[in-house]
Amino acid sequence: MQKITVAKGDGIGPEIMNATLAILKAANARIEWEEIEIGEKVYLSGNTSGIDKAAWDSIRRNKVFLKAPITTPQGGGYKSLNVTMRKALGLYANVRPCKSFYPYVNTKHPKMDVVIIRENEEDLYAGIEHQQTDEVVQCLKLITRPGCEKIVRYAFEYARLYKRSKVSCFTKDNIMKHTDGLFHQVFKEIAQEYPDIQSDNWIIDIGAARLADTPEDFDVVVLPNLYGDVVSDITAQISGSVGLAGSSNIGESCAMFEAIHGSAPTIAGQNIANPSGLLRASVMMLNHIGQQDVAELVKNAWSCTIEEGIHTPDIYKEGISKKQVSTSEFAEAVIERLGKKPQMLPAAEYAKDVKLTIPTYQRKKQANKMLKGVDVFVDWKGSNPDELAEKLTKLNSDIKLTMITNRGVKVWPEGFEETFCTDHWRCRYEVENGHPAAKHSIPELLSNALQEDVDVIKTENLYEFDGVRGYSLGQGQ
Question: Of these four, 234, 424, 438, 470, which has the most CB atoms within 10 Å of its CB?
């Protein structure tokens, strides 16, 4: 018997969770649940994170969490509980199957069957933002080798376990050559370990366009966090309805399962919400804990209900649907069909008593790291880069001013007067002789900048790793 933590959430959450739990109980799932309170009530009690210690303890003790949608109050500095949970529990993999159930659910893509696997912890979602000048704010994009290896390996292991033939990688490494470049490089490395699975890579813009237009060309897609967030919602929508999609959030020790839609407070309490997203998430949970037999029962009964035209209002369509039902009536219909297999939709068949396991990340040999200079970011209200360069060359030592950029575009030397500039300037100091920069050069430069009344707002050291430059050039180089 597996003990799990359950949260009924806000809005339609209690209705769809009650329906889901009734189906799991009727299917004789070998689970018992421990309920916790999270979300709006906890937020409004004065807890800005929306979860208390007892709830955390339950989730960490049971390791498996089935969660209904919650409401985050507007304003008041409330944090996203979903983001907090994913990071705090190390839930690095977000998995969203997006499959067409045509003709029973209307879609323009009757053959699509795509799984989006999204990195869940880093990228721009690290949430590190700063205002640096009157005119410029920044958000740091953090991509790590451990993060890339875990999510890419998970994608290939998922494909192998569920007998899928191809894994595609979406990045923007033609522009972000170091961050997205690392993700793509790790993808290529790991793909070689899975010769039985096809692999390809796409630039995110054309990849997303192709996925939206011809989703049947894709099977499993793995992406960094932000791209995955956007693409997974697009994919769920074009499959027929966001309301049908469930997702899993997988970590090395804990896992969270949820519908991808929100709490829909405008229809709460009306008994009309579709519980399918949360129910399909519970099927993913059953597979995760090794109860594939129950997962098959539930998934097949749900498919029978859908293909027999018993639909909630959100997917009800004249000429296709046979009967419009409430949330609780839909659950009853699924329960009545436990033990049956669909006639038109594919019947679920899962490999029994298996779990997807990812080896612990092994840190590679440390590279030879050589300091080559520093990027000094300056708040300066002038408009002529030549004037700023004249001021900054006074700070030269063994590291010398070689370039000034504004918003990533080189404006000195040999910049264009047409280039629009803000008050945020990146000023690069580098060694000229190929030797390492002296360790004292950077603190001396900053001290001299203070004497020259240069407003330094940030610095980034420039390094080579095993002789490979670890920093970008400016645009226009």
Answer: 424
